Amino acid sequence: MIFFSAHGVPLAYVEEAGDPYKAEMEECIDLIMEELEKRRITNAYTLAYQSRVGPVEWLKPYTDETIIELGQKGVKRLLAVPISFVSEHIETLEEIDVEYKELALESGIEKWGRVPALGCEPTFISDLADAVIESLPYVGAMAVSNLEARQSLVPLGSVEELLAAYDSQRRELPPLVTMWEWGWTKSAETWNGRAAMLAVLVLLVLEVTTGEGFLHQWGVLTLFR
């Protein structure tokens, strides 16, 4: 049996906030199974959700409970697929490979396997690049902050090169939108802080050299004479 295990989310995210995550996971699995059927692979499959924490209800069925149920139903061979994980980390290497494997063997499952995460698989990376290109018309409205300035996520001069590399249809993109922010930005905060530090330093120098000022009036510097 092919066992798709996705990262869970609180049920309220889906039912109350309208998060499409659950529907997207189910659609993704349907597409995978359709492709497998074309290759004459017709294994049974199921989907469950792992990594829940806290007292609230998360998406069901839960991975650990499902493994136990499959063992009780007589399933002997299970292939785990970390469907929503794009890289190897603690939830695949520890939670799936160690904890769920032990639970499966204890539940009567004799053969346990696990499909690796996508990682740097070239096809996956290419698809990510295509997704970025498709989103370019909206990137200009998303600015990133650094200490000195706010810049676009995508250098404007690189758009044509990116299209040439990844977009075979050469779709024309609308001009990028630039977002200007006024007021208290990180850049302004940095320069204001530097100006304040310089002003304090100047006041201290004047206090020490002239012997006059607020610190002398308050008796602070006189204590160190």
UniProtKB/TrEMBL annotation:
* EC code: 4.98.1.1
Q: Does the entry feature the keyword Lyase, yes or no? A: yes
Kindly state which reaction or reactions the protein catalyses: heme b + 2 H(+) = protoporphyrin IX + Fe(2+)
Q: Which Gene3D superfamilies match?
A: 3.40.50.1400, Chlorophyll a/b binding protein domain
Keyword Nucleus listed? The answer is no
| GO BP | heme biosynthetic process
- Keyword terms, alphabetized: Chloroplast, Heme biosynthesis, Iron, Lyase, Plastid, Porphyrin biosynthesis
Instruction: List locations, semicolon-separated.
Output: Plastid, Chloroplast
Instruction: Please tell me which top-level EC class this enzyme sits in.
Output: lyase
Q: Which domain of life is it from?
A: Eukaryota
Its annotated pathway reads:
Porphyrin-containing compound metabolism; protoheme biosynthesis; protoheme from protoporphyrin-IX: step 1/1
**A Pfam family recorded for this sequence:** Ferrochelatase
InterPro entries, per database record = Ferrochelatase, Ferrochelatase_AS, Ferrochelatase_C
Q: Which GO terms describe its molecular function?
A: ferrochelatase activity
Identify one Gene Ontology CC term for this UniProt entry: chloroplast
Q: Which family does it belong to?
A: Belongs to the ferrochelatase family.
Q: What does this protein do?
A: Catalyzes the ferrous insertion into protoporphyrin IX.
Q: NCBIfam families annotated for this entry?
A: hemH
Instruction: Name the chain's protein.
Output: Ferrochelatase
Tell me which species this is from: Actinidia rufa
**Lineage, please?**
Eukaryota, Viridiplantae, Streptophyta, Embryophyta, Tracheophyta
